[in-house]
Amino acid sequence: MGEPATEDQNTNLPGAGGAGLDDDRDEPEALQGPSVAPEHIGEPLVVLTEVDKYFGELHVLQHINLSVRKGEVVVVLGPSGSGKSTLCRAINRLETIQSGTIEIDGTRLPEEGKALANLRADVGMVFQSFNLFAHKTILENVTLGPTKVRKKSAAEAKKRGMELLKRVGVDSQAEKYPAQLSGGQQQRVAIARALAMDPKVILFDEPTSALDPEMVNEVLDVMVGLARQGMTMIVVTHEMGFARKAANRVVFMADGQIVEENDPESFFTAPQSNRAKDFLSKILTH
User: Fold this and answer.
1) DSSP assignment of 63-114
2) Strands ordered across the beta sheet of 123-126
3) CA-CA distance, 173 to 84, in Å (whole number)?
4) String of b and e for 144-156 (b: at least 16 CB within 10 Å)?
5) I need a surface site. Which of 37, 72, 144, 201 has the fewest CB within 10 A?
6) Is 126 in contact with 190 (CB distance < 8 Å)?
C-alpha cells in the first residue's frame, strides 16, 4: 500500500529516454543492451548502520547495514514479508526506526520537523500506487513540489515540468487529470514528479506491481534510462529482467535481514545462500 502523497515527498534530475513501448514486446528495449556501467559510481550517498525496526513484537528490520554509492543502482529482492518495502520507506523516514542510523549524503536523517522535510526533498519516492493528486492536472502534479518546496518560479517549474513529461513520454497529457491516464502513464508521471525536485536518490517501492502486464515495460524503460544517466536508485521490485540488466548490485532480503549482496550476474547464476537459491528456483521457473 502506498502512503498518501505529500508535497514534500516528491522529488528533478535528467529524465529518461523513450517510453511508449509496444505491448507485445517481451522486455523494454533498454533492457536488451548491456548492464549499467559502474565507472561513474562515486562516494557513499545512502548509509544505513545497524538499523532495527519493529512492528509490535515483529522485528521487521534486523541490524541492517547497507551503503549505496552515488550513481549506483541497487535492486532489493526477496520474498513477501522480508522487509524490502519497510527498508525503502525507512530511508525516507516514512517508517521510523527503533535503533541505528540512516545518513543521506553525510547528513543523519532527522526524526521530524523542517530539517526532515528539507532532507526528504533530496530523496525521491515512487510508490506502487502512483499517489498523484487527483484534483490537479498532470503538469500541476509535477510542478507543485518545485514551487512549494524548492521555491522555483511558476514559469521555471512549468518549463522544467514539461521537459520531464516529454522525457517520460506523457507531455501530451499535461493538461489532463490522473484518472484520464492509464496506470503506466500515471506511474511515468510519478517518476517525472520525483525528478522535478532534483533528488540525490530515488526510491522505488514496487513501482510496477499495481500495473497491468502490458504497461510494465513502459515504466521499466523509463527507469533503465534513468539508471543509465547516473541516477542513484534503490529499487524494490520483483522484475528480474530489470534487476539483472540495470542493477549494479542486488541485495537479497529474507526475514528482515540482508542475506546476500552481489553483482546481478553472480547473484542470478551462482547464489551463495540457500534462501536465495530457493527464492530464485521459485521465481525463475517461467
Assistant:
1) EEEEEEETT-EEEEE--TTSSHHHHHHHHTTSS--SEEEEEETTEEPPSSHH
2) 123-126, 201-205, 233-236, 73-77, 249-254, 257-262
3) 33
4) bbbbebeebeeee
5) 37
6) yes
Assess contact for 90 and 97: CB atoms under 8 A. yes
Helix 154-167 to helix 138-148 angle, to the nearest 10 degrees? 130
Backbone angles phi, psi at 41, to 5 degrees: -70, 135
Q: Which residues pair with 204 in a beta bridge?
A: 126, 235
* pLDDT band per the 50, 70, 90 thresholds, residue 15: very low
C-alpha cell at 265: 550476474
What is the Cα–Cα distance from 281 to 286, expressed in whole angstroms? 10
Residue 53 bridge partners (DSSP): 61
